[in-house]
Design a protein that fits this description.
By secondary structure, the chain is of the alpha+beta class. Helix content is 31%, strand content 19%. It contains six helices and ten strands. A hairpin with a 3-residue loop joins strand 4 and strand 5. Helix 4 packs parallel to helix 5. The protein is globular, with a radius of gyration of 16 Å.
């Protein structure tokens, strides 16, 4: 399955430009491990071997979270709690997806990764700020993924790209605060949520249950 999604991304990436950071080598290694576990009758959880993508601003160890800001390329040392929960359920991360610079806007564009196009009409926007995630899922580059939302950053691209997205009540899904970035409005960070995005409501429900489960 992971091979198929990687091939899909490589085939359509130039059209929608949804992928910011490709993590294919690691994904293939994890997929092989998942196959070996299945052969031995072992399951990692409800997302065993499922390929997913993650918004660029969300922490994944070994990758930067630039928020579209040039020079903010420090590699992160640990996963966001939401990412860790997906991994613990067996998910395999294929890539990080493009986001609007500073996550402020209803489109997806920044000077590092460029513009993400709407998969249904390449001349239109994918929405924002989680537009890379919305476009990747809609264009079958990922089964499901994570976005972030304060004032519509999951809901807008989900609507524009024809998929489903959920902004949970803040703090239901644990998340790391952004490193080295402050919101212009002090109260904005308290409204921020990480939430799932998927093509079907059933997938959205499963992801939310995994992400919000009390540890």
């Amino acid at each position: 399955m992971v091979n198929s999604f990687i091939e899909r991304i490589q085939r359509v990436h130039k059209d929608i430009n949804a992928i910011a950071i490709m993590m294919f080598e690691n994904a293939l290694s994890e997929a092989q491990s998942c196959d070996e576990l299945v052969a031995n009758g072992v399951s990692l959880g409800p997302l065993h071997g499922v390929p997913v993508t993650i918004k660029e601003s969300i922490h994944i160890a070994g990758t930067p979270s630039t928020w579209g800001i040039q020079g903010k390329d420090e590699l992160l040392e640990e996963d966001d709690p939401s990412v860790a929960r997906l991994k613990n359920a067996g998910a395999i991360i294929l890539a990080k997806t493009n986001a609007m610079q500073l996550l402020m806007g209803c489109e997806t564009f920044n000077p590092i990764y460029g513009r993400t196009n709407n998969p249904w009409n390449l001349e239109r926007t994918s929405g924002g700020s989680s537009g890379g995630e919305g476009a990747a899922i809609a264009y079958m580059c990922s089964v499901l993924g994570l976005g972030t939302d304060i004032g519509g950053s999951i809901r807008t691209p989900a609507h524009f790209c024809g998929i489903h997205g959920l902004k949970p009540t803040p703090r239901i899904i644990p998340q790391h605060p952004p490193k080295g970035i402050s919101h212009i409005q002090k109260g904005a960070s308290s409204m921020s949520s990480i939430g799932p995005m998927a093509r079907t409501v059933d997938d959205l429900k499963l992801a939310f249950e995994i992400l919000s489960r009390k540890q």
